[in-house]
Design goal:
The protein contains 15 helices and 17 strands. It has 507 residues and is α+β, with helices and mostly antiparallel strands.
């Protein structure tokens, strides 16, 4: 550490000239702003000025006769003893060192001391020592060195730039992530690593920094030297000069390319798993679906035969035949709707974000499994509130969730007597959006395993796959909601999920 010169030479000359505690030189010594004291060859303090007492928290009289080494942190004492001895052995040469001293209250100061030998009151050789408190500067430099070490060893790219976008520093990690050496980037525009379509984004950030605005953490894309794109998570902080003006920015960029790729692969796997779950569900519903399709087909054939009869009559009853044809058209449309719903449910169409009335989705699912509900002699009751808000989401995925919950309820009630098979489906306005409840009077839930219900491949069914509820929870979470289960009283289970008005990231 460097320190400004202390006027020890003038003190020495005055002391040598007068040789005692009197005269002008003593006034200089006593009132000098630097910490000044005299010590003999053993380190005993012979004299000290007010600055020493003030800085170390002692009265001057307490210091006289005390060893100067006692004021030094133990680890530094031997070094100071040798410095004082060397100073006294080489008259005319000054010596300097940095040392830690303990104040009376125990706090530690860093002091830079300068010493020179002199003659005191006759032939006694003493060291005249002047010290300067460098604690604040020492800590600042220590902090700077630590920050420099952090920057150089960080796995994140740490880059600084001017408000014009010119790079002023570039650490090792930046080279690793973007491929450019510091010599290639320092002094060059940061736009070199920014895709052309994002140049305006960077200009806006620079303008906001100039206005003193805070930049929120964000994710964006950069271009490496070899041309490949790097997904990064960015933190931007302003750099200030001594006057408090913003003169540049520091950016910390974390490479999240691999994480983004893994996230995309996870979303794809979840989508595929959801599609498998839907196909499996439809397979289990084959009999009910066949019944749903067979009903309008039977009506279609019956109306067709009736139409032929009316046309064969003498005279032909055209009006009755027309009504038969209308019934045929209606039955055909109904069969088509059932098939369309099934195709949409098992198809691989990408997730969609639409404005959805969840009540409509519930009605669509009920119409799809109405045959299964009737076949199992289940009493279905619905209570769909008219003030449920519209939510953002994927209609097919939400159909899948409700379908899973209702089919689970139907299966749970297959083991109880028919007169006790009751299924309730309701929707209400929730604090954040919509709340849907599916309640049954089936065999209920095992309280010990209720927390495992939503684990993938965990199932209590003899032939179950254990993916329906896991997929359902994933879908609801992707919509920004929550899915959970509780016990029904006096028997059965309750499954509920929420959907916020804004929706989440449908995956």
């Amino acid at each position: 550490m460097n320190s400004g010169p202390t006027n020890i030479e003038g003190l020495k000359n005055s002391a040598n000239a007068l040789g005692g505690r009197e005269g002008p030189w003593w006034d200089v010594f006593e009132h000098h702003p630097a910490m000044c004291f005299m010590a003999d060859a053993t380190g005993v303090i012979l004299s000290a000025n007010a600055a020493v007492g003030s800085q170390l928290g002692y009265a001057v009289d307490e210091l006289i006769g005390q060893s100067a080494l006692d004021l030094v942190v133990e680890e530094d004492r031997e070094m100071v003893r040798k410095k004082i001895a060397a100073c006294l052995d080489t008259p005319g040469q000054s010596s300097s060192w940095e040392v830690r001293k303990a104040r009376k209250d125990g706090t530690v100061l860093w002091i830079r001391e300068n010493a020179k030998a002199m003659r005191w009151q006759g032939n006694q050789s003493v060291a005249l020592i002047a010290g300067e408190d460098i604690t604040e500067r020492y800590l600042d430099e220590l902090q700077s060195s630590r920050l420099a070490a952090i920057v150089s060893t960080s796995d994140d790219a740490i880059v600084s730039k001017t408000l014009e976008g010119k790079v002023t520093s570039w650490n090792t990690a930046a080279t690793k992530i973007f491929g450019y050496d510091a010599s290639e980037m320092v002094g060059q525009p940061i736009f070199r690593i920014i895709p052309p379509e994002l140049h305006d984004e960077e200009k806006q950030i620079l303008m906001r920094l100039q206005r003193g605005e805070r930049i929120q953490h964000y994710e964006t894309t950069r271009i490496a030297k070899d041309g490949h794109r790097v997904e990064v998570s960015l933190t931007v902080s302003p750099l200030f000069n001594n006057s408090g003006m913003v003169v540049g920015a520091s950016k910390v960029a974390r490479d999240i390319t691999a994480a983004k790729r893994a996230q995309a692969e996870l979303h794809q796997a979840q989508t595929q798993l959801a599609q498998v779950a839907r196909v499996t569900t439809v397979g289990e519903l084959t009999a009910a679906i066949a019944h749903e399709v067979n009903q309008p087909l039977t009506g279609l054939v019956s109306s067709g035969n009736a139409c032929l009869r009316w046309l064969a009559a003498e005279p032909p009853n055209v009006e009755a035949a027309r009504q038969s044809v209308q019934r045929m058209v209606s039955a055909g449309n109904r069969a088509g709707e059932v098939i369309s719903r099934i195709r949409a449910l098992v198809g691989k169409s990408p997730p969609q974000r639409d404005r959805i009335n969840i009540n409509d989705v519930i009605v669509e699912v009920i119409s799809l499994i109405d045959g299964e509900i009737r076949r199992n002699r289940i009493s279905l009751q619905t209570k769909l509130s008219s003030d449920v808000p519209v939510v953002l989401g994927d209609r097919i995925q939400l159909q899948q969730v409700i379908l899973n919950l209702m089919l689970n309820a139907v299966e749970a009630m297959s083991e109880v007597s028919q007169e006790r098979r009751e299924l309730w489906v309701s929707s209400v306005k929730d604090a954040d959006g919509a709340l849907v409840t599916v309640r049954d009077s089936g065999v209920g839930l095992d309280t010990a395993a209720i927390d495992r219900l939503f684990e993938a491949f965990y199932t209590t069914k003899p032939h179950g796959m254990g993916i329906g509820l896991a997929v359902s929870r994933t879908i609801i979470r992707a919509h920004g909601g929550r899915l959970w289960a509780t016990l029904n009283e006096p028997q059965g289970a309750v499954f509920q999920f929420t959907l916020p008005v804004g929706g989440g990231e449908v995956s």
